[in-house]
Amino acid sequence: MVAQIHCPMLSEDPSVTGVISTWFAQDQQRVTEGQVIAEIAIDKVTMDIPAPISGVIHILVPEEAVITSTQLIAEIKD
Amino acid sequence: MSKEESGRRISTARAVAEGIATEMRLSDDVFVMGEDVGVYGGIFGSTTGLFDEFGAERIIDTPISETGFIGAGIGAATEGMRPVVELMFADFFGVAMDQIYNHMAKIHYESGGNVKVPMVLMMATGGGYSDGAQHSQNLWATFAHMPGLKVVVPSNPYDAKGMMISAIRDDSPVIFMFHKGIMGLAWMKKNPRSIGVVPEEAYTVPIGKAHVAHEGKDVTVISLSLSLQHCLDVAEKLEGKVSVEVIDLRSLVPLDREAILASVRKTGRLVIVDEDYKSFGLSGEIVATITDVDPSLLKVPVQRVCYPDVPIPYARVLEYEALPTPDKIEAAIMAALK
Amino acid sequence: MIDDQMRLKFYKEMVRIRTYEEAIRREYHADKTPAWDIGAGLIPGEMHLAAGQEPVAVGLAANLRKEDAITGPHRPHHLALAKGVDMNKMTAEIYGRTTGFGKGKGGHMHLFDPENHFSCSGIIAEGMPVAVGQALAFSRRGTDNVAVGVAGEGAVNQGGFHEAVSLAANWNLPVIFIIEDNEWAISVPKSASTSVKDNSLRAAGYGIAGEHVKDNDVEAVYEATKRAVDRARKGGGPTLIEIQTVRLWGHFEGDAQAYRGEELKEAEANDPIPAYENKLRSAGVIDDAAIAEIKATASEEVEAAIAFAKQSPEPKPSDVYLHVFA
User: Fold this and answer.
1) Is A46 close to B184, i.e. CB distance below 8 A?
2) Which CATH code fits C4-28+48-312?
3) Domains with residue ranges and CATH for chain A
4) B2 pLDDT band (50/70/90 cuts)?
5) CB contact under 8 A, C255 and A19
6) How confident is the model at residue B7 (pLDDT cuts 50, 70, 90)?
C-alpha cells in the first residue's frame, strides 16, 4: 500500500504557507511507523511529521521548499 | 557515521534531549534545571520533549540566577543527585564563574576525593548569525584551562547523545558545550551534518577519546564542533586531490593527545581549526602536545585557523571575515602542503 | 503638574517609538523568507522589540537631562529614542553600517551614544553595576546628574542586580533602578521566578526608597521617576522603581510565544498607546486630524532613518581588527 504524506492544515487561512525545515528521513530510506520524518516550520512554530506506516519513503518536495496546507510532500510504500 | 547508513535520523538538539531522557528514565536522581528548559524546550532545543515526558517536577525552569541555580546543582550533586544544568549561552559564564571554577571544579579535589560532584553543565556556544560579542563565543579553552572540569564538545547528533549519556554517568563534573550551528534548528541555517543517524537505545561515546572522522595521509586537520562539519565538507571536496585526515577531538578535557600524535606522526602536516579565540587556547595546546614529545614530527609550521583575538562584531561582513570558514580551512590545507 | 502640552508630548513620543519598532519589525522579517534564518537579511541576529513598554521610556526620559545617563537592557530601542539619541545613527547601527553608533560592531543590543550618555548591555542585570559607576562619576565630579539602570523583572533575581543596589545604597549614589515588569523572562512568568509580587518592596531591604507604578501609565511613570530623579539630584540617594508594563510581542522576533496562551490576547487588549490616545481624545487634547499628523510625522522620520541606514556603507572586512584597544 502507499501512504501519502500531506502538509498538515497550517491555518484556516489558505494563503498561509510553511517551510520544510528538515527532512529527517532520506529519499528511498526505509522508515518505521511513528518515526518523525520531517519538521515543518510555520512562522517560527515547528511541527513534527510522523510516518503513518512503515515502508520506503519517496520525498517529493525538497528541504527549505515553501509548502501549502494539504500539499503532497512524500509517499511511503510498504 | 557514514551518510549512506540507514536508520532513524534526528537533529543534534533532539539527540541531546534524548540522551538526557535516556538517563532520566533510569534514575530519579537525574533532573534538569535552567532557564526556559521547561515548556520552551530550551532556547536551542536541548530539552525538546522532556517537559512533556517528565513534567515540571524534574524539568525545572529557573529564575535568571545563574550563581544560584548552578550552585544549587553543585550542592545537589554533592548529596548524590545527578543534575543536568543548562547555562543558556556559554557567554553568560561570567555571572556564575565562581561556582563553576572554585566550587564545581574543586570540591572533589579539596575533599581528597571524598565528595563527588556528578553534575553536567551544558551550554550553547558559537556564532555566525550576528548575535554579537556577548552571545557568540565558544570559550571551551577557558573552561578547559581550569583543572577539575571535564569538557566535551560534540560535532554531530550521534556523539551528542552518546556523550551526554557518558557525561551524566560520569562521577566528575562535565561541561557539555553544543554549538548552536550544529543543533539542526528550524530557524538557523544548518549544515546537513546537523541531522544524523542516532540509535534509539542507550549507548555511550567515551569522554576523552578523539575520533578519526575522515582518514587520510597528506595532512592532519584537527577540529571540533561546527568547524569539524566544515572540515569534513572541505575534506570531501578535496577527495582525489588531497588526502585529508580529519580528527574530531570531541573532548578537550581529557584531551586525546595520543590521537593527535598518531595522526601527525603519519602526515607531518597539521592544520588546527578552532572557532574559539586563537591565542592562549586550544590550538596552542595542540601544538604543545606535539612539541612536548617530538617537534621533528612536524615537517612544516602548524596552520592555525582560529577566531582572531578580537571581540565578535555584529555586522555580518565583519564576523565572517574573522570566522574559520571553509575557504580559510581549504587555504590552510593547501598552505600546509607546501 | 502634568499639563496638556506634556500629555501631547508623551503621546507623540510613544507613537514615535511604536512606529519605529513596527518598522524595524517589518524590515527584520522582510528578507528572512521563505525559510526563516536568524542570520539572514539586512538586519541579522537577534531582535528584541519594546512594543508596549513605551510609557516607561517616555515617562522616565521626560525627567532627564542630556547629561544624565541611561543604561538599558537587551531591549533598548524605546529607552534610546526617548533619551534623544540620533535615530539615523541608531538605525545604521542596527543595520551594521559604518555610520552607526558602533560602526557596525555592536548591533541592536549594544548601542552606545556617549553624547547622550546612553548605553546598553545584552547580559541580564549587568547594566546595573555600570549605572552605579556612572552615578559614582557624577557624584565624585560634584555634578547633580543622575544615572538610571533599566532592567526587566527577571533581572531582579540576578546577583549583579543585588550587588549594584547594595553598593549604591551603601554609598548613597545618585542612581535610579528601573524594573520594567512585563511579566515574562522569555518563557518564564514572574510568578515562577520571583518570591515577591512587588519588587519595589525589596528597596526596604537595602534601606532605599522604593515605588511601584501600576498599569503601564505614562503619567504615573513620569511622576514616580520625577520623585526619584529629584531625590537623587538633592543627594538623597537611590530609588528602586518597579513599573508594571506589557510585552506585546515575543521576547525576540521569531518567538512563537506558544507558552503565553490566552494571556497574549489579554496583553494585546492592554496596549498602552490606543488607551492613552482615547484618554487624550476624550479630554480634547487631540483629535483624529492631530493623531493622523503625529503618526505621519513619525512614519516619515522612521522611514528616512531606515533609508539612511540602507544607503550607508558596510564596513570593510578588515575593520574587524580595529578598536580592540584604544
Assistant:
1) no
2) 3.40.50.970
3) 2-77 (2.40.50.100)
4) very low
5) no
6) confident
Tell me how close the Cα of B47 comes to any Cα of chain C, in angstroms: 14
* Chains with ≥3 CB–CB distances under 8 Å to B: A, C
pLDDT in tens, C245-299: 999 999 999 998 989 999 999 999 999 999 999 999 999 999 999 999 999 999 9
Which string of b and e fits C240-263 if b means at least 16 CB within 10 Å? bbbbbbbbbbbbbbbbebebbeee
- Give the mutation candidate from A23, A44, A64 for the C interface (greatest C CB count, under 10 A): A44
- A41 touching chain C per CB within 8 A: yes
Does B211-336 match B9-197 at the fold level? yes
3-class DSSP assignment, residue B177:
strand
Structural element, H or E, at residue B21: helix B12-26
Q: State the pTM of this model.
A: 0.94
Residues B277-303 have pLDDT tens digits of: 999 999 999 999 999 999 999 999 999
B211-336 has CATH 3.30.930.10 classification: no
Instruction: Please indicate whether, in this complex, the C-beta atoms of C254 and A44 are within 8 angstroms of each other.
Output: yes
**Inter-residue contact B160 to B228 (CB < 8 Å):** no
Q: Which of C96, C158, C188 sits opposite B314 (nearest CB)?
A: C96
Highest CATH level, class, for B9-197: alpha beta
Size of interface A-B (CB pairs under 8 A): 27
**Interface size between B and C, measured as CB pairs under 8 A:** 144
Write the single-letter amino acid at C269: A
Q: What does the domain layout of chain C look like in residue ranges?
A: 4-28+48-312
Identify residue C177 by its one-letter amino acid code: F
- Does the model's ipTM exceed the 0.85 cut? yes
In chain C, DSSP finds a helix count (H) and a strand count (E) of 12, 9
Angstrom CA distances, C38 to B16, B316, C228, stand at 22, 12, 40
Indicate which of C25, C28, C29, C36 best probes the interface with A, i.e. most A CBs within 10 Å of its own CB.
C36
Residues of B carrying an active site annotation: 135
